[in-house]
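Discussion board: Methods & Data

I've been asked by a reviewer to show the raw model output for two of the constructs in my manuscript, not just the figures. I'm not sure how much to include, so I'm pasting the format here to get opinions. Each protein appears as its amino acid sequence followed by a line of discrete structure tokens. Is this the kind of thing reviewers expect to see in a supplement, or should I convert it first? Here is construct A:
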Amino acid sequence: MSIYITQLIYIKEGEAETFDQFEAIAIPAIARYNGRLLLRMRPAENEIIEQSIESPYEVHVVSFATDADFENFMQDEERKKFLHLKEQSIKSVVLIKGVKIG
């Protein structure tokens, strides 16, 4: 059964370019671990119907074949070489893990 990871990503002011540099490494790595990037979006204020939290900079939805595939992705050596870019650019992330129903 596939797992689904949704991330609400909040970046530090002025660090969008650094964040994009990290994503250029991290996103291609997903496929090496039986994963697929299903959605990557930047929500616009005029598209939000209701909210009680800060708007994220980006929202990612990714699927992996198994939990082990997700864990292996997180330990990817190439990705880990660039974690300094993530730490420099990301203020916080809300990670929601789930499965498809229906």
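Construct B, same format:
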Amino acid sequence: MGQLVYEQKSTFDIEDRSLAHLRIVVMNKLRRQESFMLQVPHREVGHVSLWMAPGIPVAFQFSGSRSPRIDRDLVDEWMQQASGSDGLSLTSRAQ
């Protein structure tokens, strides 16, 4: 189980495989200067919506020693969702 660290103060537990795919999506969106909404699970409140934008520090901390296998179709699907009006939601996926 890895963690997404948002603004150096909030952490969100995300399974390493999902986190690896999310890292690619975030990297590509922010490289293009494209902000988007990301909904992630939160152990205390259920879920949290985060505004992902250039200039907001984020970090991806992986617990496993091996890099997960990347599914290009999943990355494409998540990129499309992130570009949509509702943004990308990881809350409906198994973490």
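Answer (T.O., handling editor elsewhere):
This is acceptable in a supplement if you add a one-line summary per construct. For B, something like: Strands lie at 2-6, 10-14, 36-42, 46-52, 58-61, 88-89.
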